[in-house]
Design brief:
The structure holds 2 protein chains of 2 kinds. Chain A is of the alpha/beta class. An 8-stranded mixed sheet of chain A has the order 6-7-8-3-9-10-12-11, sandwiched between helices. In chain A, α7 links the parallel β7 and β8. The radius of gyration of chain A is 20 Å and the shape is globular. Chain B is an alpha/beta fold. In chain B, a hairpin with a 2-residue loop joins β4 and β5. In chain B, the strands form 2 sheets. An 8-stranded mixed sheet of chain B has the order 6-7-8-3-9-10-12-11, sandwiched between helices. Chain B is globular. The longest helix of chain B has 18 residues. The chains are: A alpha/beta, B alpha/beta.
Chain lengths: ~325, ~325
């Protein structure tokens, strides 16, 4: 296992309240796979992604990366480990320093990692830029504001790849991009994954995007994991009522597509005061008394298919 | 030919910028009949937001505008400011993408609806307050009396958008412009908001223009769609015709670039190479030519006009081959 997340809890204080961003989440990620992590606002997926990188450290639970427990590492050790653990953010323009040139931005991780030889650094920067489809001669001396969102995301990816990491957390990397550019960047990520032998955790709210890039998908709701399965299995036979609601809500670019049979109701409650028992029960068409009293525990309902629900659509 | 509710004729908008004049709209025409809905689809820089602002006469003062916009036969550019203000909010309403910027943060929700009712319908204050609560209930806000006394920041994004819709619908407009109304919302909330808009539209026989970058949103919810690129209309058709019988390569490319839930994992996406053109440096010829997989020499030389049969029009020298319309699954 490349990554093992065990009983992870992330809570933080905001305006005098405790926000239960991630509550007791456990899962594994195998080397070379892409795990999609999907959910709506307040589900904790971004917080989870950052907690894996210890940005900041989790409140409780363990993150074990390549056999090393990250929560126990000191700052210096963590900095070395982060060469193998990288992140791509949602807002491509905001994640690049506007006062630096592209060349310097992509070189920075190398400098921090202690690569003192300028020639080696330059060569690696050029290689990374070329890998993401940019011509180093044309871009290295320019600044982020001269580029479009899609190009900035390519620069971000180049910066991520320059240290040849093992695990890359992609936090909504295409949500802020236009449809036609989104497809380019998704294809690029697949290509980079193959070329560099990466393991990806792909965080998104767009299920169609998650499906196309992931080997397995985990669905989160209000800090909890609802369902996790092989991608095809999740989309073909979703067992958790929330997964079904999420799938039914996707707008399909086909005027002949039948209308959804599961109509979503209401909105996600606040992670400050999550409902008792199962957190989805306030919007669940199958909720019963048991759901309010007893929190469902993650259990297996098939080959690699796990679910936390008292009344799943199958496997009950 | 009957008078359409909204008629836009060869609308051109140019904005002065540091890098020279920016051509935001380069000759857009459209018609929207009473009670019908039109989807306006485009990516960034397509001009779709500029179009809604131009229709509403809400462009910056330095904008150079030519062409005309007629609402119910009245030319909007020719109206005096008071007449325009009376029209906007009452007959033509808008819902924007971000309710946090379109709602007044220092007024309660209730008073913002009441304000609109007093301004446009001249209701007495007590009647307006009752009507405001009714409207909040009709857009699906639970405990409307309590919510009416709250401020926008106390509501979630989805609730705020419902309030914005309540305000927009409060004066029974004949045309609703919804500019990316659900882009900032979660997918389950998006579905509810779109259903709400569809319900209200059919109840009131209201015309609607739904502006979005998401083809999925317009697929089941509009009568007709126009696809915009670089400030122009590239294709216009009845919705089903657009999706099943598209003739413009850009429409085809846009649809192909969307990941479909039906596709298997790791299906490579048909991305459109390159980037949209710089609107301050318009090139002769079709703006999509550099990125078009079918692009030929004549495409770069001259801009094709909109041509086609009846309601289905497209701006392309070498449109895709005509396809037969497939039967619907229900046999219609």
């Amino acid at each position: 296992m490349l990554l093992r997340v065990e009983n992870l809890v992330v809570e933080y204080r905001a305006a005098g309240h405790t926000v239960h961003a991630v509550s007791d989440v456990s899962f594994d990620v195998a080397r070379g796979e892409t795990l999609g992590l999907v959910g709506e606002s307040g589900c904790g997926k971004s917080t989870l992604g950052r907690a894996i990188l210890q940005l900041p450290r989790q409140t409780a639970g363990r993150v074990v990366f390549e056999g090393i427990e990250l929560g126990e590492q000191r700052a210096e050790a963590m900095r070395k480990l982060r060469r193998r653990l990288q992140i791509i953010f949602q807002d491509p323009i905001a994640s690049l320093n506007p006062r630096r040139t592209v060349g310097d931005i992509v070189a920075e991780p190398l400098i921090i990692a202690g690569e003192k030889d300028v020639a080696t650094r330059n060569a690696k920067v050029r290689e990374a830029l070329r890998a993401v489809g940019l011509d180093p001669e044309l871009v290295a001396q320019r600044r982020p504001h001269e580029f479009s969102g899609g190009q900035c995301q390519r620069i971000s990816i180049a910066r991520t790849l320059v240290l040849e990491p093992h695990l890359v957390i992609c936090d909504e990397p295409v949500s802020a991009l236009d449809v036609s550019i989104r497809a380019q960047i998704i294809n690029l990520l697949e290509e980079m994954k193959a070329r560099y032998g990466l393991t990806l955790i792909f965080i998104a709210h767009d299920l169609a995007v998650v499906k196309v890039i992931s080997d397995r998908v985990a669905v989160m709701y209000l800090g909890k994991l609802c369902e996790i399965a092989q991608t095809e299995q999740l989309f073909r036979e979703p067992a958790h009522p929330y997964t079904r609601v999420l799938l039914a809500a996707i707008p399909k670019p086909d005027p002949d597509a039948p209308l959804a049979d599961t109509v979503p109701v209401g909105e996600p409650p606040s992670p400050i005061a999550p409902p008792s028992g199962c957190r989805f029960r306030t919007r669940c068409p199958r909720a019963a008394e048991r759901c309010a009293k007893e929190e469902p525990v993650m259990r297996s309902i098939g080959e690699g298919h796990f679910i936390a629900c008292h009344f799943p659509h199958h496997g009950g | 030919m009957t008078l359409a509710l909204l008629e836009v004729d060869n609308l051109c908008v140019e904005l002065p910028t540091v890098r020279g004049p920016l051509r935001a709209l380069a000759g857009v025409s459209l018609r929207l009949e009473r009670g019908r809905s039109l989807g306006v689809v485009g990516e960034s820089g397509s001009g779709k937001t500029m179009l809604s602002r131009a229709i509403l006469q809400l462009l910056p003062p330095r904008a150079k505008v030519s062409g005309s916009t007629r609402f119910d036969g009245k030319t909007l550019q020719a109206l005096a400011p008071e007449a325009l203000r009376a029209l906007r909010g009452k007959e033509i309403a808008v819902v924007f993408q971000d309710p946090m910027t379109s709602l007044n943060p220092v007024l309660t929700i209730g008073s913002q609806i009441v304000e609109t009712l007093l301004e446009h319908l001249g209701l007495a204050a007590s009647a307006a307050r009752l009507r405001a609560v009714e409207l909040l209930a009709s857009v699906g806000i639970p405990e409307p009396e309590r919510r009416a006394g709250q401020y926008p920041h106390q509501l979630s994004g989805g609730m705020r958008q419902r309030v914005a819709i309540a305000i927009a619908l409060s004066c029974e407009p004949r045309l609703l412009l919804a500019d990316e109304p659900t882009t900032a919302l979660d997918v389950t909330v998006q579905a509810q908001i779109l259903d709400l808009l569809a319900r209200e539209r059919s109840r009131r026989n209201m015309a609607m223009m739904l502006i979005t970058h998401d083809l999925g949103i317009v697929a089941g919810r509009t009568d007709a769609v126009i696809v915009m690129y670089a400030g122009r209309v590239m294709e216009r058709a009845a919705t089903r015709v657009l999706f099943k019988q598209m003739r413009h390569p850009y429409t085809e490319a846009l649809l192909a670039a969307i990941p479909k839930v039906e596709d298997a994992p790791h299906t490579p996406l048909a991305a459109i190479g390159g980037t949209p053109p710089d609107p301050t440096r318009p090139a002769p010829g079709c703006p999509f030519a550099p990125r078009c997989r079918y692009g030929r020499d004549d495409c770069r030389e001259a801009m094709p006009g909109l041509a086609g049969l009846g309601d289905h029009q497209f701006a392309c020298w070498h449109p895709l081959a005509q396809r037969p319309l497939p039967w619907r699954r229900d046999g219609r």
